[in-house]
């Protein structure tokens, strides 16, 4: 099963880093090299019952590459929409990203909202509750992630994979996979004080 997954969101929110963390288990520290146009990677994920091949499209967040990325939305099975919890405008732009997604992506595209850089406690300006609220408003699953610490990275990709796998099987007797419930159950809190 080959799944086309696209990472979208403002420039600098950590799309490339999240993908590298998932693929190689490493964090790209230091200088920030902005993605030009679109970057293709092919990691795979082993679930309990099968090997899932991901085709990952790491898109450029910069405005000047938007027309390039629009062309790819149509083929995406899933979209990971990222904002940066240390950057308010990346959060404020989520609505605009959602409008764009509705315009260009397939109607049944699997969508998940991710608040990245959850490790950056001191620089945080967007509260987790704000992310949760926005996600609820738009009916999309949400979690905070960190490409730096690895928080929820595997889980985000695994949740997407499970959802897509269930959709592709189309076996009527199989209980429906509930992405929201799975995410809520499995999600690790990034907060210090939640029990
Ligand atoms: N603290 C922290 N920094 C991060 C995290 N993820 C990414 N960064 C930093 O944020 C900067 C931008 O990361 P990228 O992954 O290149 O951002 P991008 O979204 O791919 O940007 P474009 O390619 O321009 O769209 C880099 O300096 C990273 O080191 C994270 O989870 N925590």
UniProtKB/TrEMBL annotation:
Signal peptide: none annotated. The keyword Hydrolase applies. Gene3D superfamilies: P-loop containing nucleotide triphosphate hydrolases (3.40.50.300). Pfam families: Ras. InterPro entries: P-loop_NTPase, Small_GTP-bd, Small_GTPase. Keywords: GTP-binding, Hydrolase, Lipoprotein, Magnesium, Metal-binding, Nucleotide-binding, Prenylation, Protein transport, Transport. Its cofactor is Mg(2+). It catalyses: GTP + H2O = GDP + phosphate + H(+). One of its GO terms (biological process) is protein transport. Its EC number is 3.6.5.2. SMART domains: RAB (SM00175), RAN (SM00176), RAS (SM00173), RHO (SM00174). It is an enzyme of class 3 (hydrolase). It comes from the Eukaryota. GO terms for molecular function: G protein activity; GTP binding; metal ion binding. Coiled coil: none annotated. Belongs to the small GTPase superfamily. Rab family. This is small monomeric GTPase. The gene is RAB26.
